[in-house]
Specification:
Elements: H1 12-21, E1 33-38, H2 42-45, H3 53-59, H4 66-84, E2 89-94, E3 138-142, H5 153-159, E4 164-170, H6 175-185, E5 189-193, E6 197-198, H7 202-215, E7 218-220, H8 222-230
Parallel strand pairs: 1-2, 1-4, 2-3, 4-5, 4-6, 5-7
Helix pairs in contact: 4-8
Length: about 240
Amino acid sequence: MTERIWDRFLTEKDKRIYQLAGYGKRGGFGTRPALFIIDVQYNFCGDEPGESQEEGVRKYRTHCGEAGWKAVPHIERLLKLARERNLPVFYTQSERRPDMIDSGVQVGKSHRGREKTSVEGTHATQTVAPLAPQPQDILIGKRKPSAFFGTIFMSHLNFLDVDTLILTGCTTSGCLRATTVDAYSFNFKVVIPEETAFDRFEASHAINLFDLNCKYADVIPVDEVAAYIEGLPVREAPGGGA
């Protein structure tokens, strides 16, 4: 069996219980997917590839190091395929008011929580250039980890008759995880292309992928997701237009 990213973090007992309890069964793909790019912004990736996380985090406390830019080409690949098939593409806009009041209690969980690197309209909160949204895409403004919480995301998914969410971005332990659990709770099939997810802590990334794959999503190689999208017909736009 191919080694997974989380295997070295598991005890032998963990591995036995995983097998005995039957976790990790594939949920499979649906027929009407959407691609979702979560928080792939400069304040999570850094301003440019090659910047060390130790240096980058001095500027952006949410900096995830090289893992962010490493994920970008994999997301770009799926984005190109999704556009060719006219699939719905969603992005989060994770940003705050200048006074940070819309962060609520979140600012209290970091000693640097009131820094202005998440203020709306700034370079820091823009999606990185290779993945820049296009006019037909749907931007979901959020203030909490889950893209479902306090947004109209579900309304869009209902209108577009989506049954499968392909979730990419960050952080694996935070917004990606929260959105995955809510999507699962709303009975969507959830797919996480492993190479497109990232986090600032290696252990958090690996263990959260393990847990999400156990119970809430299919964490699978990007090649498999790309092949699935390539096999789909071109989708008609809402209202019947192409």
